[in-house]
Amino acid sequence: MIQLTQHPRHTKILPIPQPYPQTPPTTHPQNSKTIKKTEAPMEIIQLKHNTPLWKQTIDFAENSSWTPGRHIAGMLRENRFTDWEAFFVATENQKIIAHCSFLKEDYYPENKYSPWISSIFVTETARGKKLSHKLIQTAITFAQSKGFTKVYIPSDLKNFYEKCGFTPIDTLKNYAGDYDTIYMRQI
């Protein structure tokens, strides 16, 4: 910084004295703070047929660690969805980390309930972020927009869907011969 001083015969430019530079404070482990890494925003997107994300979802399902992944990839590949059915994906950093479907019929010879929230899968590395809950809520909002007042989820998980407001109402034998609990929620 500079300072102008007036003298009767001339103007003189003098430097303004600056305070001595401060030395940085010493940090001690007990005083240091951990800076949290900011997470990339997570998005839930309804898939649109024949888009790059649709094709990416087919690959994701095909290579999933979840056994029904190949079946889901086939459904997507053949676009086996009615006009009111939907498929949702959760992405983070433009990478698919979870998905769920909203279907008229599910994997049961005796389909006495509809509509279904199904195919809920979260990658192992993305678990613990309540993505299943967020996907279910997205599907419920979609169901309400289509005029539905109830939704159903098939599962062999105990107590998980009760936390999402669902009630077990039935047990159905699926095409593989296994039995799943059917959960229902009024919306």
Succession of helices and strands = EEEHHEEEHEEE
Distance between the ends = 68 Å
Q: State the helix count.
A: 3
Report the mean per-residue pLDDT as an integer. Answer: 83
Q: Return residue spans where pLDDT drops below 50 for at least 5 consecutive residues.
A: 1-29, 31-35
Assembly form of the protein: single chain
Strand order of the largest sheet: 3-4-5-6
Q: What general form does the structure show?
A: globular
Strand content: 25-35%
Q: What's the number of extended β-strand segments?
A: 9
Largest sheet: 4 strands, antiparallel
Radius of gyration: 29 Å
Structural class: alpha+beta
| Helix content, binned percent | 10-25%
Give the C-level CATH assignment of the domain at 42-151: Alpha Beta
Keywords:
187 residues, alpha+beta, Aminopeptidase, four-stranded antiparallel β-sheet, three-stranded antiparallel β-sheet, 9 strands, 19% helix, disordered N terminus
Description:
- By secondary structure, the chain is of the alpha+beta class.
- The chain has a domain at 42-151: Aminopeptidase (3-Layer(aba) Sandwich).
- It has helices spanning 52-62, 69-77, 131-145; strands spanning 2-6, 11-15, 42-46, 86-92, 95-103, 116-122, 150-155, 167-173, 179-186.
- The strands form 3 sheets. A 4-stranded antiparallel beta sheet has the order 3-4-5-6, sandwiched between helices.
- Helix 1 (52-62) runs antiparallel to helix 2.
